[in-house]
# Entry
Amino acid sequence: MLVFETVPALKAQISSWRQAGRSIALVPTMGFFHQGHATLMRKAAGLADKVVVSIFVNPTQFGPQEDLGAYPRDPERDRAIARANRVDAVFMPGAELMYPPGFDTWVESPSLSRRLCGLVRPAHFRGVCTVVLKLFNLVQPDVAVFGEKDWQQLAVIRRMAGDLDVNVRIEGAPLVREADGLALSSRNSYLTPEERAQAPELYMGLKKACRLYREGERETAALGKAVRDYWAVNFPLGKVDYLHILDGPSLEEVRIADSRSRAVTAVYLGKARLIDNVLLSEND
Ligand code: AMP
# Structure
């Protein structure tokens, strides 16, 4: 597996693959890999001849009070996991490479970005869109893979890529969970043992809405209330930032749920802000 820390070396390799007629898949990440990342890598390997994984803790998607400094990192372990998942190249740029002095251009899709997570993280998706577009330009992938765990991010990136005629196919990959239902996240490492023990209740609450939906409930207000009532009893350490039942692809709020509806949520648990989402009509 190749490891690139500079742009010229990366670009030379990309050109040589292109000249040999190879297709390229990109998996953008912030590292500290878990099985969710590994699933994206394996999906990417099935979609293109060569897989490039970027590892970059992107400072511009963190707010001033957020956890940029504390964000967990383990580049050596990440490289081993990438190698084990048939990744061809890892791109690990430094912050000064992505944002040299004088950097002054930003990409944003405001109507999708300033809601849900964007309400408490106002510059977050601007940072995400900008770095992802830069990575697209550097790697020139045919396809890029993003996890459905970050449902709003996937919607924002699809919109950005569509609006700007970016020549990259955007593929989503299903959310990967621990056996007890907690969505895998690098930030789960912030949880204390007590918080970790309660964390699966986040998903159990969302499953409550799925169960009611299957039983015929369609009013999103009733579905949302059932989830909040469940959390109030079973998840007292969780502080809900938001819980919405939305049309999945458009992120529009709906009064009556249908087969496209998703419950999407962000909850503070100790130092961690956990996000999760489920398709209401999903089967157990
Ligand atoms: P991150 O390193 O957290 O920025 O995530 C990099 C990519 O991995 C994003 O596309 C995430 O949506 C995806 N991802 C993170 N956690 C999971 C998970 N539990 N299941 C599926 N994809 C995930």
